[in-house]
Amino acid sequence: MEEKEKEEEKAAGTVSRRDFLKDAGLLIGGAAVGAAAGAGITYAVVEKEVVKEVPGKEVPVTGAVEPAFEPEESRVMALAGNISEMCQVDVKNGKVIRIRPVHYDEKYTKEELAPAMWKWEARGKTLEPLMKTLPSYFQVAYKKRIYSPNRILYPLKRVDWEPGGDPAKINPQNRGKSKYKRISWDEATTIIASEVKRIQEKYGPYAILNKADSAHRERKNVLGGSGTQTLWLRATPGFTSCYRNADSWEGHYWGAEHVWGSGNRGIIMPNKNNPNDVAENCEMLVIQGGDWETTQQSGGQFSGRVMRWYQELGIKVVHIAPDVNYTNAAHPDKWIPVIANRDDALYMALVYTFLNEGIYDKAYVDTHVVGMDKISDYVMGKVDGVAKTPAWASPRCGVPEWTIKALAREWASKRTSVAMGNGGSKIRGPYSTEPSRWECVVLAMQGIGKPGRQQTQGPAIPDRKVSFSTGGATRGGGSPDSKQFIPKTLVHHAILNHSLEKPVSWYGTTRNAEPVENQFVKYTYPIPKAEGGTEIHMIYEDHACQIVCWNDGYMYLHAIRSPKIECVVIQHPWMENDCLAADIVLPALTMAEGEDFDICGKQMPAIAHYKQAIKPIGEAKSDYEIGAEIAKKLEKLGGVYAGAYAKYTDGKTTEEWIKSGFDKSGAQTYISLEKLKEKGYFPAETRPDWQQQPYGVRKFYEDPVKNPLPVPTGKIELYSARLAENFPDDKERPPYPQYVIGGPASEGWFHDESLWGERAKKYPLLLVSNHPRWRVHAQYDDVPWFREIPTCKVKGPDGYLYEPVWIHPKTAAERGIRTGDIVKIFNDRGITLGGAQVSERIMPGHIYQDHGARLDPISWEDSEYDDRATKWINRGADNNVISPAMGVSKNCWGMATSGFLVDCQKLSGNEYEEWRQKYPEAFARDYDPAYGLKFDAWIEGGT
Amino acid sequence: MKVFVIDVKNCTGCYSCQIACKDEHCGNDWTPYAKPQPDWGHFWGKLNYYERGQIPQVRVAHVFVPCQHCDDAPCIKACPETAISKRADGLVWIDPKKCTGCQLCLPACPYGAIFYNAQLHLAQKCTGCAHLIDRGWKEPRCADACPQLAIKFGEEAELKDLIAKAEILHPEYGLKAKVYYIGLPKRFIAGTVYDPGTKEVVIGATCTLTGQGGPFTVTTDNFGDFWFDGLAAADFTLKIEKAGKTKTMAVSTKEEDKGLGDIPLS
Questions:
Q1: pTM for this one?
Q2: Is the domain defined by A751-938 classed in CATH 1.10.150.120?
Q3: How close is the nearest chain B Cα to the Cα of A738, in Å?
């Protein structure tokens, strides 16, 4: 490899397998490990840049805590974005100095802990909780997030936006483009209150869209749970809720739930004690893309311990995905690469083999399953003349025939469970209902509920005697029921294409945990004028990631640039993503900066009280305080807004909320609030007979009549009469699963995102995008300790850190792409950039990139939206901006953000230079490779 | 004497070790033990990342490399200011007060474990979190943060059972490194055997690998898979046989691990 390229790789910390080995001899100390040890790999020494500058004098380090050994204080806290594991936060001189695991024995004796401890015994082995908590790496690094130079320091107003609704002063086309200037809290909250009043009076009570989200923002409870704005909006005449769709498990929500009823994320219910069944009885665990090592970080790193234990118990693990995801990397065994989202073809061939060889549980199917005859006819070719044999499936799913047959026979003969972990391409792509439902067919044919045959998710185990709750203290109203609402997946469609005269309709609220029957209910936006219906004209949001985490982010940006939208407000701790397109931005604090009370932990669930660790950064306020300030201003307006503040607080102080929440928590019989505050946390008691609790759907297996599933027949409905009745003409989600890959819109298809359609001729690669390893969705992109990890960022020749794009050596060679190149990922929806990592972790014909990287627009002039395929360019590399605009399918408004068509090419030096000349501002932003863009980048004249 | 024992097989690649090291040392001044680590670019404890093999036989490995706290540490000899010493408990320590930033120790360390702090004009490296150990901590931050207990730290005598199964990085350096490794990845050769006529995997095929350390023999499993692990970087001959059918091929791991993909046996 070229010398220059090598240096770049080293600087970025990236050493590919081949290059590393080839170059090993060149590295310091690069000789092989001793032959006596039979060794092969040369172990890398630490690569680093040689520092040539030699300053003469010692420079004091700013921000360092000195002297070293003054007394420290410590706080227990489950801090960080949507992660619940407890951490010990050590504080000195008002500064967080370290974040580490809680050691239970620092505050409790072994005897005191005994009721909470547990032993998980299986096959002669035992798993027990460690005497420390298992923080996620997101938490270990949280100091950098708290003190990020990307923190919003004070309230901001967009420089070319003025309240009042004057079209000439809104400049909506500049959202995402203009900079901001500092304003006071007083000015900001006055503007918000007056805009609320003006817009509600002018357009009607439902003219404000309330966007609340629990998982895409920082986890807080009394400091402000999801939707603190809901609490004050309730004190106004009304609002339109934006419902967060069941994201991350779309296929199961819209597919599997019709097979066995609604439950948690499409898993067959009940699912309690499934992990125990796996430990005791399972012989083969199939993981189809769901990535425990990333998505289950929300509970700390307990699930990684469990997965490792499963392997120690001798369970064969089979990973089926286009990519070596992080669970496969951490817990490898057998990898079966499958073309993105074509798990359906693979499953059909498994079903064919089961039928053809008679290797399934016929008796179970007779008594537990409805619709096997239709499935059988379809798979055997009686419906369309095409038998879904392994030979038929192989070119469609990319798995060799022999491996399909071997997998079918292993699945039949070994007690096999499926482990889910939210996403994975197959349940997040176009038509994801079909792979999901075909998985149901396979599970049903092998008798789901039998010992060792379950569908399981990251272990919520062992069960507690009393599950503590702090919901009674939560200060946030989420996205509550409202007369008029819009699913998050449809907001942009609703704004751009619909009005009172031309409303949009869809099925289901799209929210998780709705009964599946809700998917047959038709909703409309706007609701009829007679019922108070109005279009939305203001948006209030408490997170900041729709552009980079939802369907067609560019379209969403374009939508909120509509002149209809007169005011956009966001409260968030960091200047990122959707904040860039707001008119008012309010700085929220992080968990470390206030007092809170919450439940936490997965290994040993506990209730906890968090003392404030440090003072708020800048002028940040808690989400709850922000709402209180707005409520005070609303109250001043009188009329319908009178009493807004009292309604907001319900007359209670924060302390009183904690007290009343505690009194309902379930913990009050175990410990006093005073004692809880002193100890910081209290672990819940383990249910003594937890291991004897029913294993998942074992009871359904044993007696399906007495233990019916929540569907009309009570059985596994491979054929859904309700789907047939409600959607008789739906070829995209027919009454029983079929092979659905879409096609041209002219033929009534929602998507043409498969390798076999017309669009594939122009955009021949499938982009796979999972939940990110180094972000919680869009959060954490400014943490330098992640950004120097080779799988987190790739340093381009321009010194900018790009979001990695894994590309197989064969696909890369066809395009002349090498590791470290800046690449364009593009389709007819626009361009986003990435840094190439040539890798065997992704199949040929695909590329892989995490979702949610922070926006850094090069060009997105609203006037050029119609030419966005070539003119909208995002350097920050998030790929949701070019994901399909449409839902999973016509009647399923989930999103389809993995496994869609793109092309990927090396960005030429000429084109880069052309952009640099054309968009000098974009290349001149305040950028530090260690942190990415800084707060200053968006402030007029700097801070 | 304090040592590390790192079980590479238990590592899930979460980088908590590398991150916790930075959490402890970036922005915190532990004088007289150590001055602050720069915010970025230093890796006093580095998790190295390797991708191995080819589709579909791919493995990802992570190996944590802190200062090896050698008994015969060449950095000590290289320092003209006697700023580097081995503490009584075995931890090798750079005294930030004595260090003049001459950087002679950097190339002396073959593990590349010493870094230059240009702002402070100091050589810096893993201290074994001596400032914490001396105040009663049982482990440094990297070990404390590891959710899989893959990093163990303690007295050499107490960890002797683990050490008996372990090896050190680059023993040929002869530096008596005090970081022991269990399960360091070597080279592998793997594949899936199938019958191109019947389009079936071949189960129970005898795979014999001759070459350095061999011969080794494994049998293909129910997926037709075989996997030779722990191999040297060398040239091998692979012979696959089942029911009178034989295939012989030369396979070299000199450059890299070999995932041979699907191998027809006819």
A1: 0.93
A2: no
A3: 25
